[in-house]
Write a structure and sequence with these properties.
250 residues, alpha/beta, seven-stranded mixed sheet
Length: 250
């Protein structure tokens, strides 16, 4: 622990919302985020929506909300990179543009950061006695499998690597370069946090998942890409490559 003054818990959070075709929920999500006493700014990155979301955001007149309109659809990862680059508060959280995650839980997620016990906090859907909507069995199996494989390659013991709710000290995000454009951003973030030796905590959260009919977008192809990204960005693999490179030079 260093001598840095701890940030004021009030208005200490940049909330980055990647958004694609969420006209039914985006206004309510923004309202809930702004209602949190922790929120300093909201950065909404629209990924070239085609359902009216973009037009709604263009008309938005909120002093603490910045809207960034991507010129082409590139994916969640690309939207997050753009939002992270704009963040100015001490802490940065990812907030999906649907209603699956509850901004009222920001204080719980921030607690280990404000106490200077953590640099990154994950909100786990599987480490909680809080309410959960009951949905797809195979999705939960897939999430747990990806988390297990990720843990094997990062040597972390997370329970929910694929969670949306990840909170970072801003300097953590500034310490590495992100590459993934789509949902592979989740294992990439986790691998690069692990490689940096940052302190990681988990907090149990509630979860109100939605069906594909309600707008859920992630599919099995994203799971395959996540497995690829777990290996590609693995700290173990990076160290092995560095070791081989040193041997060749020697």
């Amino acid at each position: 622990m260093d001598d840095r003054p701890l940030p004021d818990p009030a208005r200490c959070l940049s909330v980055v919302i990647p958004c694609f075709n969420e006209v039914a929920t985006i206004q309510e999500v923004i309202d809930r985020v702004l209602a949190s006493p922790c929120t300093r700014e909201v950065i909404v990155v629209d990924d070239r929506s085609t359902d009216g979301t973009r037009e709604l955001l263009e008309k938005l007149d909120e002093p603490n909300v910045r809207v960034i309109l991507q010129p082409v659809n590139r994916g969640k990862g690309a939207a997050l990179r753009r939002g992270f680059a704009e963040a100015q508060a001490p802490f940065v959280i990812i907030q999906d543009a649907d209603l699956e995650y509850d901004p009222a839980e920001y204080p719980d997620l921030l607690a280990p950061l404000l106490a200077d016990k953590a640099d990154v906090v994950y909100g786990s859907r599987f480490l909680s006695g809080r309410p959960h909507r009951v949905l797809y069995f195979w999705h939960s199996v897939g999430n747990r499998l990806l988390t297990t494989v990720s843990n094997m390659f990062t040597n972390l013991n997370l329970t929910d690597m694929e969670t949306c709710y990840k909170v970072f000290r801003r300097e953590v995000l500034e310490s590495f370069t992100l590459e993934e454009d789509r949902f592979g951003i989740e294992p990439e973030l986790t691998a690069k946090v692990a490689a940096g030796g940052w302190r990681v905590y988990e907090i149990g959260i509630s979860y109100s998942g939605r069906t594909y009919e309600e707008g859920k977008k992630i599919g099995w192809r994203d799971g395959v890409r996540a497995l690829y990204c777990i290996v590609r960005y693995s700290p173990l693999l990076q160290r092995a490559r560095a070791s081989r490179s040193r041997r060749r030079r020697g």
